[in-house]
Amino acid sequence: MSENKQRPDRADDPHLDDVDVPTHQGQSPQAGGGSTPASAAQSTTAFPATGPAAETQRLAHPGESGHYRDEDFAPTETPAPATTVAPTAYPGDPVVTPAPVASQELTAEESAAAQHVDRTRRGTIDFGIFLLRLALSAWLILEAVGTFFNLGGGQGITGLESEFAAYPAGAVLAVAVPVAQLAAGLFLIFGLVTPLFAAVATVVTGFSALHFVATSGEGLNIFAWPDAAWLAVMLLAMSVVLQFTGPGLYSLDFGRGWARRPLWSSWIFVVLAIVAVAALWWFGTGINPFA
Q1: Residue ranges per domain, the chain?
Q2: Which residue ranges does UniProt annotate as crossing the membrane (predicted)?
């Protein structure tokens, strides 16, 4: 055969000199066609491994691979916090001044001024409540003192016992009623512990009203009730009104909440007073005043 036929078609291509062709070196087969021993040394040209397994191996052991990427050594950067840029002021724009923040703490002068304004806005309400309290207290005190000291033509405790003689607890009531009148009158005239003693006044005036209605024998005929019964009813109404209005600022309770804005305490003491009147009349007299 000629030399041209033994040479490959692209053997003369000069660009093939740089191609890395894998080679195999080893012992040639022995004569007689024997196979290559298992311990024969083999060497090949190494290619870099590719695929998912190779990528996992490279990430787990970066020092064992000769291939690196720029992001492997890229520094971790923390994003800078966002900043608020104030708008640029131009000539002619209106100047906006922020409103001053009011201080939460008031000085002694400011607190006194606020209390003075609050008192002024109430007008003459507190003075009217004071007159109501004074009138009710005066009647209670005078009635009790007249009973204890036998003043004003009355018969004192003895006369009151005779008046309550028809009741099972007449002797006890003859002492308890003027004592309650005096205590309620003294505390109410000073405006001290007003909710409690306004309730006491409600009890004693309510008992007196029921007593005069029962002794008159008119029952529910309100037009035939005696003047003493109507006086007791009016005093009862005054004590209930005072319970809901409070003693006002002209009292020793002026620093209490019930002095100007009574709420739940008024209802509680009014209900307790009504229950006390009913219990006192039922267990003290045992009769029906409207029969």
Answers
A1: 129-284
A2: 130-152, 164-189, 196-216, 228-252, 264-283
Q: Which class for 57: exposed (0-12), middle (13-18), buried (19 or more C-beta within 10 A)?
A: middle
Query: Over 80: is that where the pLDDT of 92 sits?
Result: no
- The span from the CA of 49 to the CA of 58, in Å, is 10
Q: For residues 94, 99, 100 and 106, what is the CA-based torsion angle, rounded to 10 degrees?
A: 150
pLDDT of residue 109: 59
CB atoms within 10 A of CB 291: 8
> What amino acid occupies position 155?
Q
Q: Who's near 83: CB < 8 A, 6+ residues apart?
A: none
Nearest-angstrom CA–CA distance, 154 and 156: 6
- Per-residue HEC secondary structure of 171-189 comes to HHHHHHHHHHHHHHHHHHH
Helix locations, the chain, DSSP H? 3-6, 52-60, 108-121, 125-149, 156-163, 170-190, 194-216, 227-245, 264-284
Residue 170 burial by CB count (10 A; 0-12/13-18/19+): exposed, middle or buried?
A: middle
- Residue that has been written with the tokens 């006390």 in this structure: 276
Residue 115 three-state SS = helix
Q: Which two tokens stand for residue 50?
A: 């590719």
pLDDT band for position 262 (cuts 50, 70, 90): confident
CB 64 within 8 A of CB 56: no
Whole-model pTM? 0.59
pLDDT for the residue 263 = 80
Q: How far apart are CA 271 and CA 259, in angstroms?
A: 19
Q: Would you give the DSSP letter of residue 16?
A: G
Q: Both tokens of residue 163?
A: 């008046």
Cα distance between residue 223 and residue 261, in whole Å = 37
